[in-house]
Specification:
This protein is α/β, with parallel strands linked by helices and 407 residues long. The protein has 2 domains: 258 residues, Aspartate Aminotransferase, domain 2; 129 residues, Aspartate Aminotransferase, domain 1, CATH 3.90.1150. It is built from 13 helices and 16 strands. Helix 4 packs across helix 5, helix 4 packs across helix 8 and helix 10 runs parallel beside helix 13. The structure holds pyridoxal-5'-phosphate. The site of pyridoxal-5'-phosphate has 14 residues, from helix 4 and helix 5. Pyridoxal-5'-phosphate binds next to helix 4 and helix 5.
Length: 407
Amino acid sequence: MSVDSPIPFVDLIAPHQELEDELVAVFRSALHTGGFIGGPMVEKFEGGFAQFCNTRFCVGVSSGTDALRFALMAAGVEPGSIVVTVPNTFVATAEAISQAGARPDFVDVDPATHAMDPDKLQHYFEAECDYDPQIRKPIHKKLLRPVTAVLPVHLYGQMAEMDPILELADRHNVTIIEDACQAHGAEYFSKKQNRWLKAGSVGRAAAFSFYPGKNLGACGEAGAVTTNDVEIANKIRMLRDHGQAKKYYHDVEGYNGRLDAIQAGILAAKLRYLPDWNQKRREAAARYEELLSQIDEITLPFEPAWAKSIFHLYVIAAPERDELLEHLRANSIGHGIHYPMPIHLQKPYQKLGYRDNDFPVAEQACRNLVSLPMHPHLRPEEQTRVAHVIAGFYCARRSADHNTVHS
Ligand SMILES: *Cc1c(COP(=O)(O)O)cnc(C)c1O
């Protein structure tokens, strides 16, 4: 490897080349059977993914965004009600809430994990809401709408702190839907249940995305909802298929939100490799930790004792972030920002009336965070070079500072 060969942020080619024969066989079998939508390939994947997540049901849909929207609708989120989520997430989390007819509202995140801060959620219910005994829901004092669900996001591959979130939801009679779109195989140790729980098995329902760049990715668009609730599973089967319970008899207004068979077949083939790929990401994260921990300026990802991250992304907090990005770019090192602007300040949500500094922790994250190359095929020598380039950047800064002080 030459010193300057580019280090990609993700690698969507190597895993598919390795599995090329298996993936082509899926396509061939769809061609030979004419089964393109639904059918045994979809059912097989749904069974396998439910088992992987430790849930009774998995319903395949056309994207993670549809999975979120259908999960909210099937869990009985009322149009006009509030669904509480976090500001630093992919925009689809909020889109799904509005598209289900509800209003997104936000609580700030924990500065160490960047996921929903349970203390902020508690404050939300206790200080910003009144309990309405008639409908048995919290009512937001200013927005004058009931809160029907909380949507924590298992960001970057690590689950949110679910015990206190579940307890608050229980106490205030609201539903929990997990955004597990970045967390296929992540685990959370529940002290209350004294066991590890898989992402997707903790809330009333959970949404997964199989966008190609996710830890489990299709060769196109795909998503799924997992749940232990048979009614929710059945409702989602209807919602994804034009609201029909029986062909051409439509019980509710639904959508075209099905999972196609070729994607399901591809996902079933790739699912067998997911535990190994997730393990490789964890090993790569451990190597980064070793290589980067000497650089005092940066803060590495924090994995609490209760979390097993699958490192969908490896995100560090870095001062002078934008200069660092420039330096990474100059050294051909792939990188990302997840995310550069919090949802409450994005254009489509400006009408909701949020302002700068409403959620300072999330806003700070947008200024500070940078995602380094992370994927199962990342090589140790590539990580060494990433670390070397970052160390070089801060080293140069330190001596520049030093010179200014003494001149
Ligand atoms: C990817 C993602 C989604 C949306 O999934 P799509 O399959 O792209 O629709 C939703 N939420 C989060 C947190 C995501 O990362």
